[in-house]
UniProtKB/TrEMBL annotation, chain A:
PANTHER family, alphabetized: NICKEL ABC TRANSPORTER, ATP-BINDING PROTEIN, OLIGOPEPTIDE TRANSPORT ATP-BINDING PROTEIN APPD
InterPro entries: AAA+_ATPase, ABC_Ni/Peptide_Import, ABC_transporter-like_ATP-bd, ABC_transporter-like_CS, Oligopep_ABC_C, P-loop_NTPase
Key word Membrane present: yes
Name of the protein in its database record: Nickel import system ATP-binding protein NikD
Organism of derivation: Halobiforma nitratireducens JCM 10879
UniProtKB/TrEMBL annotation, chain B:
Region (Disordered): 314-336
Gene Ontology MF term list: ATP binding; ATP hydrolysis activity
Domain named ABC transporter: residues: 14-264
Species of origin: Halobiforma nitratireducens JCM 10879
Database matches in PROSITE patterns: ABC_TRANSPORTER_1, ABC_TRANSPORTER_2
PANTHER family referenced in this protein's UniProt entry, alphabetically: D,D-DIPEPTIDE TRANSPORT ATP-BINDING PROTEIN DDPF-RELATED, TRANSPORT ATP-BINDING PROTEIN
Family designation: Belongs to the ABC transporter superfamily.
Gene Ontology BP term (one): peptide transport
Pfam families the UniProt entry points to: ABC_tran, oligo_HPY
Membrane-spanning segments: none
Identification of the protein by name: Dipeptide/oligopeptide/nickel ABC transporter ATP-binding protein
Keywords: ATP-binding, Nucleotide-binding, Transport
Length: 388, 336
């Protein structure tokens, strides 16, 4: 395996709040290989944006505090070395945010903003004199060069009439156009690594489709690596090579898109994938309960209070490590402790979940066959079969 | 305007005919009317008792305005809304009061639709206070009953909305809508603000309530996959007009309108098995145009992948393309 471009090891981030100390990120390991797109999926409040902010060096500190962890970008540790982080951030990282209206300034035109990005990129320290020179129009880079570069980028993002767009304010553009401008601005610094935090969440499906196409085109063309944060599993499938499923500040499951979405192993990813309304079917049971309170997170596995397959005395005591089941397929769940094959373990998890659910209140029209009324005998039989 | 015959139930709960809601654009010193935005432009549909009709469309297509106009939160500028045989489009505020008991609305964002300064018990009892129904004890009893109905613990009565999670808040909003035993609920993106695992539970609750109480739902949403699973019939809306209207099954198995095809093609699928329902990949052009200056002819023609010269000249009508299935496209005329 080649060296990963980005590696995050055992990250722990705490926040100091009025309610106490919130242990938001609890040991996240993450790698992105060269030229790979990795998606982090999870529901709101699971810590996916905090992870992205930490990588980008944009975590507000305080209230945030990086308690533990290492971040390697091309084998260079960044979390312990602020200047190195700043340098890598300006030289190699690019970020695309969710809401273009709050990340673009309403009082500057697109052209002014793009020129500023070009003037100040790759600079960590800018003196007053230089800022003054830039304001009066004596920039280091020539205006014509900057203009050409802007036009080229806007053109590549299929923005109609790029010349005209440069003189417009963000409010004059539609949502899709703003997002394109934002991507163009992230590309201005010629980054090697893109971090995209829900860039299509505010958009309609047809526009989202266009933006995803454009983004993957840019990534392929420039041979970029990308960390893509989203809550939409379908979007993750379209854009990513691998998916990290995150729950309550921990990574629940890692694998390729097909692995995770067609055959989820962790009880949380299973519940999540089942709950998404799909064109084929839709499981109306959802997941019981709520995301835990981070000031008093559950002991053991953080998912155990909501887990349909939780085993008392084990899941609430031991924090599950990530078991590697196959190449690149990792699951943080005690069900997979004994080195079962994914298929066998999956079977057990499914039957266990169904029997546990059968005793609870199930309502709503069922979607597709579910073997919830299976007898205990046949269940044990199947578990033995699976173990063989 | 629609020459499609609708031979559904003889006695639908709601029959909307050529509904129009135009907003004037004023300009100049004297605030003279210089144009209008046709937010809802000649929409017709019927909603049977105990049925769910979903209106899907992109942002700005007028689906929320349609819902609010049907609930008479807006006054229509044309057409009729026959609710239980009575045209409620022209009623005065005083005449509307009994109708308001029958039609209730649940909004997208529960944090902004629940008063943060009131306790849950007062929020749920508010409709009874407004309509002056019941004694204090009866109201208290009804609130307990309603909370149980939406699977919330009774002691939530004394809490404030901010102490509840998003899913629980939405349950309170549903309980409030049910207080006066309505027959029609207008659900305006009821689960868009919720996470999927919570959304599944709220949807399941809505279906259970529909089964038990015989409610009719007019559901407004942008999530096509969701409508496939819960709606009986679906209307696809674009720039104020219904582009296609069909039973859920036939809309997904056999979409007739190019716009529906594009919407379907743009859904990012989660599971491999879903691919069977998606038409071949269509590359989509542009974005929703400015509703104050809609394109000539068919309003969708600038973005359509099957556009021909005629599209910019003639505005197609809704025509029958199958049983209870109507669509609006110039290509339908060719086959007739």
């Amino acid at each position: 395996m080649t060296d990963p471009i980005l590696e995050l090891r055992d990250l722990e981030v705490h926040f100091n709040t009025f309610d106490g100390r919130a242990e938001v990120i609890n040991g996240v390991d993450l790698t992105v290989e060269e030229g790979e797109t990795v998606a982090i999926v999870g529901e709101s409040g699971c810590g996916k944006s905090v992870t992205a902010e930490t990588v980008m060096g944009m975590l507000p500190q305080p209230p945030g505090e990086i308690v533990n962890g290492e971040l390697y970008y091309r084998d260079e540790e960044l979390l312990g070395d602020e200047t190195a982080h700043e340098r890598v951030k300006t030289e190699s990282l690019g970020m695309i945010f969710q809401d273009p209206m709050t990340s673009l300034s309403p009082v500057f035109t697109v052209g002014e903003m793009m020129r500023d990005v070009m003037t100040y990129q790759n600079k960590t320290n800018v003196g007053w004199l230089e800022i003054f020179r830039n304001i009066v129009g004596r920039r280091d880079v020539s205006e014509a060069d900057m203009h050409d570069r802007c036009i080229e980028l806007l053109d590549r993002l299929q923005i109609p009439d790029p010349e005209g767009i440069l003189d417009r304010y963000p409010i004059e553009l539609s949502g899709g156009m703003r997002q394109r401008v934002l991507i163009a601005m992230a590309m201005l610094g010629e980054p090697e690594f893109l971090i995209a935090d829900e860039p299509t969440t505010a958009l309609d499906v047809t526009v989202q489709d266009q933006i995803l196409d454009l983004l993957s085109e840019q990534v392929k063309r420039e041979d970029l690596s990308m960390l893509y944060i989203t809550h939409n599993l379908g979007v993750a499938r379209r854009i990513a090579d691998r998916i990290y499923v995150m729950y309550a500040g921990e990574i629940a499951e890692v694998g390729s898109c097909e692995d995770i979405l067609d055959e989820p192993l962790h009880p949380y990813s299973r519940g999540l994938v089942d709950s998404v309304p799909k064109l084929t079917e839709f499981d109306r049971e959802g997941i019981e309960g709520l995301i835990p309170n981070y000031t008093e997170p559950p002991s053991g596995c953080r998912f155990h209070p909501r887990c349909p397959a939780a085993v008392a005395g084990e899941c609430d005591v031991t924090r599950p490590p990530r078991f590697e089941l196959a190449d690149g397929r990792e699951v943080a769940c005690l069900l997979y402790e004994d080195g079962l094959s994914p298929a066998a373990a999956n079977e057990i998890a499914a039957t266990e979940a169904d029997t546990n659910r059968g005793s609870g209140t199930t309502h709503g029209r069922s979607s597709g066959p579910r073997e919830s009324d299976e007898s205990i005998e046949s269940l044990t039989q199947r578990m033995e079969d699976a173990n063989e | 305007m629609s020459d499609a015959t609708d031979d559904r139930t003889d006695d639908p709960l709601l029959r909307v005919q050529n509904l129009e809601k135009y907003y004037p654009i004023t300009g100049g010193l004297l605030k003279k009317k210089v144009g209008e935005v046709k937010a809802v432009d000649g929409v017709s549909f019927e909603l049977g008792r105990g049925e769910t009709l979903a209106i899907v469309g992109e942002s700005g297509c007028g689906k929320t305005t349609l819902g609010k106009t049907v609930a008479r939160l807006h006054e229509p500028t044309g057409g009729s809304i026959l609710f239980d045989g009575q045209d409620i489009g022209t009623l005065s505020e005083r005449e509307l009061k009994p109708v308001r008991r029958e039609i209730q609305v649940v909004y997208q964002d529960p944090t902004s639709s629940l008063n943060p300064r009131k306790r849950i018990k007062d929020i749920v009892a508010e409709p009874m206070t407004v309509h002056d129904i019941g004694t204090k004890a009866q109201r208290r009893e009804r609130v307990v009953e309603l909370l149980r109905r939406v699977d919330l613990p009774e002691d939530f009565r004394y809490r404030y909305p901010s102490e509840l999670s998003g899913g629980q808040q939405q349950r309170v909003a549903i309980a409030r809508a049910l207080t006066l035993n309505p027959s029609l609920l207008v659900l305006d993106e009821p689960t868009s603000a919720l996470d999927v695992s919570v959304q599944a539970k709220v949807i399941s609750l809505l279906e259970e309530l529909q089964d038990d109480l015989g409610l009719s739902y007019l559901m407004i949403t942008h999530d096509l996959s969701l409508t496939k699973n819960i709606a009986d019939r679906i209307g696809v809306m674009y720039l104020g007009k219904l582009m296609e209207k069909a039973p859920a099954a036939s809309l997904f198995d056999d979409p007739q309108n190019p716009y529906t095809e594009q919407l379907l093609s743009a859904i990012p699928i989660v599971e491999e098995s879903e691919a069977a329902y998606k038409p071949d990949r269509i590359s989509i052009q542009g974005e929703t145009p400015d509703p104050s200056d809609p394109p000539s002819g068919c309003s969708f023609h600038p973005r359509c992948h099957r556009t021909v010269d005629e599209c910019s000249r003639t505005e197609p009508e809704l025509v029958d393309v199958g049983p209870d299935h109507t669509s609006r496209c110039v290509h339908h005329d060719d086959t007739d």
